[in-house]
Amino acid sequence: MLYMNIINRQHGYAALLMIPLAFGLLSCSKHKDATPTPQTLTFQQTISLPQSRVYGSGGAIGSKFVFAGGTSNNTIQKSVDIYDVQTGAWTQSNLSLGRWMMTSVQTDNEILFAGGLTTSSYTSISGVVDIFNPGSGTWSQATLPTPRASMAAASAGRKVFLGGGAGANMVFSQALDIYDRNSNTWTSTNLMVAHLSGAAAAAGNKVMFAGGYGGTAASPVISNMVDVYDLNTGKLTTATLSKGRIALAGVASGSRMFFAGGLEAPQTNIASDVVDVYDAAADQWSVMHLSAARCNIGTAVIGTLVVFAGGDTGVKTFDTIDIYNTQTNTWSTARLSSPQTYCTLGVCNRQLIVAGAQSKTADVFLLSN
C-alpha cells in the first residue's frame, strides 16, 4: 500500500592562564580569558550488536546504551540489548510486549518505550509504555491514553510529551498525551493538526511538534505546520516550517530546537537539506542546511555538538554525520564506518554510539577538545 510504504521509510572549559616571563610585563598586562578549544568527535571503534533491529528504539543514560524492540529476521522483538560503555559488556532484558515502530523518549533517569505495532500492520496498535531505569536496572509500565504508533516525542523536566502518530487502521492522530513522571499521571489534549512521521523537540518553555503527514490516510498532506505547546500556560499555538516535509528529525540544544532534513516529495524521493531552527530565548526562526539532503536521520546532543547521523533518500543511504557546534556556530562533518539509516543514537558520558537499522554493528565516537 502506498502510504504504508511511505511511512515505513520514516522513520562541556579549559582555562589557559598566560604567565608573563618578565616582571615588568606583570605590572602592566591585562589577563584575557582564553578561547575554549572547540569540541570535536573522534571515531573510537566499531562494536558488534547482539542482533540487528529494524525500526527499533533506544537511547542512553549514564553508562548504558539501550536498544529495544523492532524487527529482526522478520520477527517482532520484545528483547532489549543493553551495552555498558565502562565494561564493554552486553546484557539482555525484555519489553513487556514485543512491538516495532515504538517511540522512545528520555527523562533525566529513565527511557520510555511507548506504543507501537504488535503485528505487521496498523490493525494492532499498542498502548503499552515500558519504562526502564538504567541506574537501577528496573522496569515499570504505564498505558497510553490513546494507543498509537509512530509518534513524535520530547521531554521537559519530568514530563514526557507524546504527540501525533497513527492509530488503528492508519487513522492519523492529533492526540497529545503528557505523562508526569513525578505523579505518574496523564493529561491529554489535541494538537491543532495531525503529525504522522513528524518530529518533536523541547527548549525554553516550549514543546514543538513539527511537520509530518497531516490530513488523512486517504488524502495525506505533507505539512509545514508546527504545534507549539507552552509549558507555562498549557496552551497550544502554531508556527510554520520553511518547507513542509515528512520523516524529519527533531532535537534541542540549549535554547534552540532543530528540525532537520526529511522528504519534501516522497513519491519522487525528493529529500531536504533544510534545518529549521527555533531559538526560544530570542523567539526567532532561522534556516540552515545539512551537507546532504536526506531523511530518517538520527540525532543527539553531546557537549556543544548537535549531531545528525546517517539517513537516506529512498534511493541512497548515507554515511554522513553533520555536526553543528553551538559554541562556534559552525558546521563540520564526520563519517560512519558504513552507510546507515534509521539510526539510534545514545550519549554515554563522553561517548556517542550510533547504531543503524539492519546492521549488527554500531560506531562509537569520543567527544574531545
From TrEMBL:
Query: Per the UniProt entry, what species is this protein from, by scientific name?
Result: Chitinophaga flava
* PANTHER family tied to this protein: KELCH REPEAT SUPERFAMILY PROTEIN, OS02G0202900 PROTEIN
Please state what the protein is called.
Galactose oxidase
Q: Which UniProt keywords apply?
A: Kelch repeat, Repeat
